User: What shape does this take?
Amino acid sequence: MNEPVVVRNVEQPPTEAVAALEKFGVTTVHEAQGRCGLLASYVRPIFSGSCIAGPAVTVSLPPGDNLMIHVAVEVCRPGNILVVAPTSPCTDGYFGELLATSLRAHGVKGLVIDAGCRDIRPLTEMKFPVWSRAIHSQGTVKSTLGSVNIPVVCAGALVEAGDVMVADDDGVVVVRRTAALDVAAAAEQRTRKENATRERLASGELGLDIYGLRKKLNELGLKYI
Amino acid sequence: MNEPVVVRNVEQPPTEAVAALEKFGVTTVHEAQGRCGLLASYVRPIFSGSCIAGPAVTVSLPPGDNLMIHVAVEVCRPGNILVVAPTSPCTDGYFGELLATSLRAHGVKGLVIDAGCRDIRPLTEMKFPVWSRAIHSQGTVKSTLGSVNIPVVCAGALVEAGDVMVADDDGVVVVRRTAALDVAAAAEQRTRKENATRERLASGELGLDIYGLRKKLNELGLKYI
Amino acid sequence: MNEPVVVRNVEQPPTEAVAALEKFGVTTVHEAQGRCGLLASYVRPIFSGSCIAGPAVTVSLPPGDNLMIHVAVEVCRPGNILVVAPTSPCTDGYFGELLATSLRAHGVKGLVIDAGCRDIRPLTEMKFPVWSRAIHSQGTVKSTLGSVNIPVVCAGALVEAGDVMVADDDGVVVVRRTAALDVAAAAEQRTRKENATRERLASGELGLDIYGLRKKLNELGLKYI
Amino acid sequence: MNEPVVVRNVEQPPTEAVAALEKFGVTTVHEAQGRCGLLASYVRPIFSGSCIAGPAVTVSLPPGDNLMIHVAVEVCRPGNILVVAPTSPCTDGYFGELLATSLRAHGVKGLVIDAGCRDIRPLTEMKFPVWSRAIHSQGTVKSTLGSVNIPVVCAGALVEAGDVMVADDDGVVVVRRTAALDVAAAAEQRTRKENATRERLASGELGLDIYGLRKKLNELGLKYI
Amino acid sequence: MNEPVVVRNVEQPPTEAVAALEKFGVTTVHEAQGRCGLLASYVRPIFSGSCIAGPAVTVSLPPGDNLMIHVAVEVCRPGNILVVAPTSPCTDGYFGELLATSLRAHGVKGLVIDAGCRDIRPLTEMKFPVWSRAIHSQGTVKSTLGSVNIPVVCAGALVEAGDVMVADDDGVVVVRRTAALDVAAAAEQRTRKENATRERLASGELGLDIYGLRKKLNELGLKYI
Amino acid sequence: MNEPVVVRNVEQPPTEAVAALEKFGVTTVHEAQGRCGLLASYVRPIFSGSCIAGPAVTVSLPPGDNLMIHVAVEVCRPGNILVVAPTSPCTDGYFGELLATSLRAHGVKGLVIDAGCRDIRPLTEMKFPVWSRAIHSQGTVKSTLGSVNIPVVCAGALVEAGDVMVADDDGVVVVRRTAALDVAAAAEQRTRKENATRERLASGELGLDIYGLRKKLNELGLKYI
Assistant: This one.
């Protein structure tokens, strides 16, 4: 019912959509797509300041076993983001500098993993961005199969191969492949609107007036004393 | 029993007390006032290196609804610190860059929130300091009333409007408005004493001798082997 | 059954082993000694970028009482690392800038503590590295005895006085004193091997081929589709 | 600023209000008073099936030190509930069977403690109800002062001496002393209303119709497919 | 991109498969389907001793708002299990005795909720089984739409309407609707095999011999000393 | 440095000491031996009401792999308690009803495991007591070696083979084999003293008087107001 497989060919999202989503970042994209697809907030960047987007290569693997990450490297394309989800909660350090070297050689932009990561200093020095659940030196074995490019639940969010991952200091959000262009357009619109609002707020105008909230406060019965 | 209200006029603490407390930082202030008023340690700065103090504007609001933060902006004065406490545990991202822009336009120094924050990168770039319980892109709505400038329990500590909040890399502490001058004086005294001790310790003298602990160790029966 | 004692003379590990372990860092050392001795991953550095190794001076003390840290300073030697373990879970701020000043005056390299730390900013400025379970301003008293240089369980790992602590951005690992030379040799060997692998991975070769995993995948029945 | 005191005389809430609140239980009381006063949900009963209400005797004490619980026994009156809050997070076992024996001898109904409890089996056998944050054998000392019957923050809620504590399998809620009669009346009203609703729901009527929600769903744009 | 919808007609799994799965319980079913579909272990029963199985009615709803549970009741069929997943982490008490009365009137067997539950005592008395993430009196509002019978991620597992939920003291597992018959057959087979093994183990035979592990231990190099 | 071994012959503690310790329970034993040896409080019984004591058979094993529990059964003696500690944090369900059947057939009294357990209902019905860190259906494999009867750190406490484990509703404590008789005697003495105190407290006498604390309160400066 659950045979280990590697899906080689994954339909990719439009390049221009990925580029746009990377520009907008996690919070704007999350809002623009109607507040869905956010990964649990325990997944945090190992260093701050990165913002990347790319199509997901998904990996489902057992706790404490990173064999399938090695398998996945071969099917990664330039610009991809690796998304790794153990089948049981695990904080072991599945990933370090050597795997990052290998992924970078194949053009992979970064890693999102619902487990542990190690080699924090060399990863920081080589600026390979990782979003992980834990920092943990505890290594893994290479014994048991899992699958590549099947749908996985990563940090509470469903991710399918080819979906666009967006990751920055706010966390990680997934955008369905087929929705990527629409979400990019909605994010563009939201950003334009926010730019206008930002200027008004910076000049001292109140959100209460800009968003027309005073009437509502009155109806709801707020008292000033 | 719990009508939503906004208290407009809040008695402010002495300006010189606030300035002094900001200079001493959280740990010294916490010690100086007899080890009370510390917020739970899960409230952490979104970036390191800030140290601020200012009178609290308090906000009590429902989970997942930031309407009252917009209401609170209007009653903030330059130098204030906004203190936000949901009535039920919540890690949603109540606060981001636009609200920070608005607060800054009104002279607010920073935010302490027992919930989530988002837009970490722009907030870091604009150097608007936030102490929060979580980093979370998940947004909120603007539907339900709460109150401004009533007493709140924020991260386990009671905060009343006009109390002085002190926040730095060690966390956040609240000083009662009426005690601010006394606490500042006690902190001054403690710092002077610590400066003297620091010099002696740096020269290699032992705390055992400086604090006169050897006799106590002996009475308690410590054995050296 | 549990009398408080201070053990003055602790056998030290070979100096060259300590120097080598410091060079290799936590993850390499942890692998080289067969994946044992890792402290729980909740012990994190208060600032990033440090990598130290040194013989442990161990402190077992009560919750909320740092008297024994003051006692321990006197038996520390240059190059030591202080390892502090409360006898009951505690996140109080046992340690701050003054104690760091004292430890530095006696040549101690850093602190590993299964409890809280405070004075984060001054500790960062003086570059005194600390790995702690929490950041917490809450201070401690100096009332009750504990022991120095007895075996302790710190963050889930057994540490004996004179064992070598290695600590960096990946966490903390303990190496038995008598095994230090062997572990350093094994780490040297592992590093050499990894350097060779790194070059091949960087050139685009796959781990599947370098580690000879393809046959195993086939035997285990992995399907490509 | 924080002198240890014991307040002997505490104004008590009306007896009939306490009796009524005990009958209604935590959730009804919490709703009836406008959803405030709930303690954090990590405070759980050590055995299930109890429901008690009574005026609070509050205890503020240091981590790992239960001296002030012994002090508090003397000022308890029959029907009181002891509310214990450490000044720093602590899971030590402050309380066990002997203290329960003493409290019962003075008519105290139960204990709410934002820390640990031990002797679970004898406490269960003698049916002395405790709501605690942890179960932990780790004992405490009797060395340091705290205060009795001052305002405390217990599990995130402000409790003043004489406030009514209500505790059952749902958790713990505090009712201000002066509001107790009004809250009891509101709870009575809510219960009557719920009884009517229960009957309609049990007969198969839908909440959508009973609460008149269909129009709202329509306005909000819910689609059935 | 995320319009709120209610899907009325959901294909149901074979009745005999549901009955079989209920008989086998969570752990056997989880094993029989190849160790997938398990919900996170933080979802626990509010009382022990229940074991139920039934087709899922799924509810996706906002934090702190239970409007959609009321909507869902109308589309439930006898034998269903309600599966509720907030779009953001939330421990509020979405569910209590009145909703249970309503669900029971429509034949619903129980509830699985990745959030809080309240009214524990009446729910226990009426034996309505709930698996929840928290017990929390904090109530919710009825303001915002969500969806019914769309795919949801509940406690880390993907659940689609019509999938079979199995829940007992071990936790909760989801079985794809189309796999239900096969999984029931595999569970039957596993149980038969375990019954045989149990007898041999009860008579003192060792698992080492029954599972033929001694050769493996030898090959792996285990030493007896 | 870490070769997998099974130590067959383990020196056992005096039978009468084990029997006595079982009678006194965890909290009394923990106090009697000077407050050491307590396991972390996250290890909880899967059902309440058990109190057992017995010599430890220790198992050190990898995350997600229970091969070594099968190995350990063979070296267990009647009256032993199995103590299982993974080398990396893990909540998988290593243990269920079949293993319990096997252990019982060899006279083992119960299990303490710093990981997950499953089959809660059958284990409860057969009254086989387990203290575990989690309840989790997720199974394990039987692939990798570990060791039996070497010293392990279980839930933060050092346990050596032949040490006496005591476990009840308060948690789990370990008593060194060589100290068992002394600790049993100290527990006997403590119990006698507590029995006398209990009677006085039950009659309404205050702890303040029984323990002679009034003078101390006075010296420390407690004020009654």
Remarks:
- The longest helix of chain D spans residues 180-202.
- Chains D and A do not touch (no CB pair under 8 Å).
